[in-house]
Amino acid sequence: MYDHLIRTGAAPYPATLATDLGLDEITVVEALRALEDAHALVLGSDRDTVWMAHPFSAVPTPYPVRTAAGREYWGNCAWDALGVLALLGSDGASASACADCDDPMTIEVENGSLVSDDAVVHFLVPPRRFWDDVGFT
Amino acid sequence: MGRGAIVPIATVWELAKAWYTGREREEWRPRTPDETTAVFSEVGLTGEFWAGS
Lengths: 137, 53
Fold this sequence. Notes:
Chain A is α+β, with helices and mostly antiparallel strands. Helices cover 28% and strands 26% of the residues of chain A. Chain A contains 4 helices and 9 strands, in the order αααβββββαββββ.
């Protein structure tokens, strides 16, 4: 899953995972559902395809990430946008907008450090409730 | 639900590194509530909002 996401920027379909892993598709879907139940990933409403494999989103979000090498991904939130760079051990940037005033803002990491620390992130949902509605979180 | 927490971006970067480094590895497992609270605490996020996760 993560190998594919990191390589392509997109989540693999169950059929792709089945081929890659030498399994049948039903087994893969059952495994994905078990991983969702364990809070290891989030599936779409069809419960067949991956929506979130934190910190990555499989669908476009307001938090795009572009690495210094030019690879492009989507984070689920500001924390996850930085999480993508942390996971990859890569410099890069996320160009989004302020969630309060909607002004454009870019969070950039260079040489492993933030270029500017002039921003804050609002966490609305406490961690103990992250998974009550993870899409809202 | 309360108003949540406002966290400096520098702390969020530290949290991103603590939380997601190694997330792609096969041996990764979801954190227990105590482990989750410990990661937040490591980067200075303590108090009722961050506790008991």
